[in-house]
Amino acid sequence: MLPLNEGRSALSESKRRIMAACRAAEFDRVLALLGLLGLALAAIVLGVMLVRGNTLIPPEGDLTKSLTFDGALGLYYLTLAFYLPIARFSPAGRGLWLRAIVVIGLYSYGIETIQIFRGIDPRFSDAGSSWDQFFGIVFGLVAVAQIIVFITLAVRFFRLPASLIVLAIRYASGATVLAFAAGAWMSAIQGRGVGEEGNLLPLHALGFHALQAIPLLGWLLGRSSLAGSSSRRLVHLAGAGWIAACLAVAWQTQAGRAVADPSPAAFTAFLLLMPWAGAFLFAVFAWQRAAPHPHRPVREHTA
After folding, report:
1. What is the 3-state secondary structure (H, E, C) of 264-297?
2. What is the distance between the alpha carbons of residues 103 and 145, in angstroms, rounded to a whole number?
């Protein structure tokens, strides 16, 4: 066990390196602002919930849906803000892609939040007017556009040299496609429930959180002293395990069972996430043990 002073020194050094990495990180400011807007809207919705003391706005509004939607979409855009510079779009292509995602994001935030505050389901309203029905149809088309825009970005990473972070983003993109598939599934059945206890939301969330979990692993490994071949094997193991876990959760859900319901599929999903958990803890340890050097280049382990 480290002496108290040495432990504090190690913690201070870790904080310093994290802050230095954050300052040096390249990100797209437009996407970052779009993401922060979503988090701000989620905070406003949460405040309204606390003031009102309940989450329902008659006849159909549910503030928890707006809270989770705005917050999740905000985190999604914040994550993509760090992806976009790596994708190496041409200036014209990057500008076109950004304009598309800003329009999609602003409409999504607006229709979800405004309609919920009006007491209207923004997607499948039974109480709204014909205009509400129309805006719901447009919302569905915007969701399809969201998928297309993401796939356009993801394809870029399969055309770039397979550096460690690009490799991690490839796996994250695969899991995210499954998350979008779960979203399309929810739209098709007009809800989250499947069978008696199945819920598509855990699959939706698990797929999207791969966007943070797997690239973060690659980022840590890229700044550690671990050999390139070993780092790549860990990313392959964690990424493949995460995607397989999503498929196991999908199998559990389509059977109409809750994710926490004990079953072979649920147990398999848990086991498949263990490689990522183990690799992440190992990566944190390897990153902390790497000798800090402000000018040490990040290793881009290409194939």
Report:
1. HHHHHHHHHHHHHHHHHHHHHHHHHHCCCCCCCC
2. 10
Residue 153, CB half-sphere, CA atoms under 13 Å: how many? 28
Number of domains in the chain: 2
What letters, b where the CB count within 10 A reaches 16 and e where it falls short, cover 1-10?
eeeeeeeeee
Residue 182 lies in a domain: yes
Separation between Cα atoms, residue 173 and residue 76, nearest integer Å: 12
CB 162 within 8 A of CB 228: no
Q: What is the spatial distance between Cα 163 and Cα 53, in angstroms, rounded to a whole number?
A: 50
CB atoms within 10 A of CB 84: 21
Q: Of 160, 190, 212, at which residue does a domain stop?
A: 160
Beta strands 193-194; 56-57: pairing state? unpaired
Angle, to 10 degrees, between the axis of helix 29-52 and the axis of helix 91-117?
Answer: 10
Give the separation between CA 32 and CA 106, rounded to whole angstroms: 13
Do the beta carbons of residue 20 and residue 88 sit within 8 Å?
Answer: no
pTM (two decimals): 0.87
Instruction: Give the pLDDT score at 9.
Output: 55
Q: Is the pLDDT at 2 greater than 50, yes or no?
A: no
Cα–Cα distance for residue pair 74/123, rounded to 1 Å: 19
**DSSP classification of residue 299:** P
Sign of the alpha-carbon torsion through 102, 104, 108, 114: positive
Both tokens assigned to 142: 């915007």
- Per residue in 193-214, pLDDT tens? 898 899 999 999 999 999 999 9
List the domain range (segments joined by +) for residue 27.
18-160
Helix H or strand E segment including 193: strand 193-194
